[in-house]
Amino acid sequence: MEEPILRIDKVRKVYRSGWLKRRETFSLSADLDFQRSRIVGVVGPNGAGKTTLFELITGNNTPTAGRVFVAGRDIHQVKVDERDRLAIHYHQSYQVRRFVTLTPSFMMQAARSDAPIVHLFDEPQFNTQDGYIGFMLAFFRRLRAEGKLIFVSLHPTASYHLEIMREIAEEFIVVSKGRVERRADFAELAADPFVQSYLGPALTERAKALA
Q: Could you give the CA distance from residue 87 to residue 117 in angstroms, rounded to a whole number?
């Protein structure tokens, strides 16, 4: 059986604080796989863990438990300078997130890929003028046509953000309260009570109209 493009296998990330009595301050759990090329919308409030999820996928953050496989390769066992040949994280203004590890490179595996397979866009800045949105949507679709898996994370603050997600994403994941869950399409996303609470009344009505 062919390996999925991305497998997030029972991953959990826990943050704790305190010296003598350490307490859990944040945790994120995800157990998902993506078999084929597609564009996935990612939504959730600020601080929900969207960026943490992306960093776990690219190997820039080490999970407390579980493993992440990109094209069958355990991303956290791949040489640091080759991880972006498997998964690449564009943070906001399209700068690439860098990797940190204490494991010597010679003890790690080769990526066995020449170009990124998973592309993660973390709250990209969409310029509403000069056709820029159309350019970016065409770019996402071109990556998909090349067999890539694309994640687009947006924090909707305007109606056009919802329109972008409705137009471009084939499915969605919702990050909330430490959990990562799938939504099959925009209609299911718009009907989610948590998403409605997060969006607020005005954007919820717009989402329902688009659905």
A: 6
What does the pLDDT look like over 113-144, one tens digit per residue?
778 999 999 988 877 776 788 888 999 999 99
CATH 3.40.50.300 at 36-62+79-210, yes or no: yes
- Pick from 79, 89, 78: nearest CA to 116: 89
CA 59/CA 27 separation, integer angstroms: 17
Beta strands in the chain (DSSP E): 6-17, 23-34, 38-43, 65-70, 73-74, 87-91, 95-96, 118-122, 149-153, 171-176, 179-183
pTM of the model: 0.90
CA dist., res. 151 & res. 173, Å (int):
9
The torsion region of residue 21 among left (phi > 0), alpha (psi -120 to 50) and beta comes to beta
Of 130 and 5, the one with more pLDDT: 5
Q: Which residues pair with 14 in a beta bridge?
A: 27
